[in-house]
Write a structure and sequence with these properties.
The chain is an alpha+beta fold. It is built from five helices and 21 strands.
């Protein structure tokens, strides 16, 4: 007789049975975590920092340009006379002073020419003295000599005087040529590399270029400005001339230097625009193809940081303070439409009672920061709350968790300090 109390389950079916029991045990718990008590999906809001859009009436707005640094003076040093280059008295790239000796060309041929010219000049002077004595004796003789003889003596005297003048001119020319054998610097500045080495013959084919000297203190920066700024500068100049004329002065003596238009410059390695100068040249016409005019700013460059050929950023600040809306630069994001900020507003619907992020497109100034903030010309009124920390985590229309109400303002850094 068989025992019917034992049920044998094949070992191959046990794993499937265990999986079925485990899934049944976990299913109710999973359903409870996916829903809130109200049935609304649970959203974990990103933590963000916020600040308030600032509106100030003491902001200095600016215009921005790209410029190129040029030496205020550039002098080519050339050989004025022919000869062998005997001595070079400088090191390439050094600073030289006005009047400093730079090159020596062999002087002997020119010294000999000067000595010969001096001798001829002295001989002509002696001949002239003798001719003048003959004229004086002839006049003293009265009727003892004929008028024809006296006229001959006068002619000889005049010819001798002309020969003296010619000899003197030859002497002066020889003296000048001898002076050209010693070449000195006409300005104070920085000298370039030598283009001819000692021992070479120079001056054979015109005036041989030996080197170049540039003046970097002060130094100039050239850049192009648009028509509206040109109009503004001309209007300012007109007003100043009118005021000078009303005071009885000479309005024609007014130029851009007198207007003291501030120009700030910054190198690629600079933070902001630390180099301060003034506008001192405005081209007399606007290029019709670009609608711009060429202008020049001059900078003291006392630290010699502005170097000829360098590209710089240019800022021209406005004359008067203006009202502007400001936001922190790190609160500005970019999308396909341009710049934007996330405003923090009250949520509605499923997010009622919570704070949500709202995208607001803006037009931000790409210039310098104002106390760590950027000027916004469109899109904001001032007073709005916006995200400054956690911008990358926020999403339009989604909740956010404010962990700090306000961020401390950035400390302003000075700009445009005279060097």
């Amino acid at each position: 007789m068989m025992n019917d109390t034992n049920v044998i389950v094949p070992l191959t079916k046990l794993p499937a049975l265990f999986l079925l029991i485990a899934f049944a045990a976990l299913l109710p718990c999973g359903c409870e975590q996916a829903q809130s008590n109200t049935g609304t999906p649970v959203i974990e809001a990103p933590k963000v920092l916020v600040d308030t859009v600032v509106k100030r009436d003491d902001v200095i707005t600016s215009r921005y340009f790209r410029g190129n640094v040029e030496a205020s003076e550039t002098v080519e040093i050339r050989a004025r006379v022919k000869g062998f280059l005997r001595k070079i008295h400088f090191q390439d790239g050094m600073e030289v002073k006005e009047g400093q000796l730079l090159f020596e060309i062999e002087p002997e041929p020119y010294q000999a020419r000067l000595d010969g010219a001096k001798a001829r000049w002295q001989g002509a002077a002696n001949t002239l003295k003798e001719a003048e004595d003959r004229v004086r004796r002839g006049r003293a003789a009265g009727t003892a000599i004929s008028e024809e003889d006296l006229a001959t003596r006068l002619t000889q005297r005049d010819v001798a005087a002309a020969e003296v003048a010619a000899a003197k001119a030859s002497y002066d020319e020889a003296k000048i040529d001898l002076g050209y054998t010693k070449i000195t610097s006409p300005i104070t500045g920085w000298i370039g590399r030598r283009l001819v080495d000692e021992g070479n013959l120079v001056g054979t084919d015109g005036n041989t270029l030996l080197t170049t000297i540039v003046k970097r203190q002060p130094i100039d920066v050239y850049f192009e400005v648009s028509g509206p700024l040109v109009d503004e500068l001309q209007q300012r100049q007109f007003e100043m001339r009118q005021a000078i004329e009303e005071q009885g002065g000479n309005p024609d003596a007014i130029d851009l230097d007198d207007m003291e238009v501030t120009v700030l410059a910054g190198l690629s390695i600079d933070e902001g625009f630390p180099h301060k100068g003034t506008l001192n040249y405005l081209d007399f016409k606007i290029d019709p193809s670009t609608g711009t005019a060429r202008v020049r700013g001059t900078f003291p460059n006392k630290k010699d940081l502005l170097y000829p050929g360098t590209d710089v950023r240019i800022r021209i600040p406005s004359r008067e303070k203006q009202t502007a809306v400001l936001v922190r630069e790190k609160g500005i994001g970019k999308n396909t439409l341009g710049d934007f900020v996330y405003l923090v507003v009250d949520g509605t619907g499923d997010y009622a009672g919570r704070k949500v992020a709202k995208t607001r497109q803006i037009k931000a100034d790409t210039g310098e920061l104002v106390d760590g903030m950027r000027i916004v010309s469109e899109g904001l009124e001032g007073g709005e709350t916006y995200i400054v920390g956690g911008v990358q985590r926020a999403r339009d229309g989604m909740p956010v968790d404010i962990v700090e109400e306000r961020e401390k303002p950035a400390k302003a850094s000075p700009e445009g300090e005279p060097e």
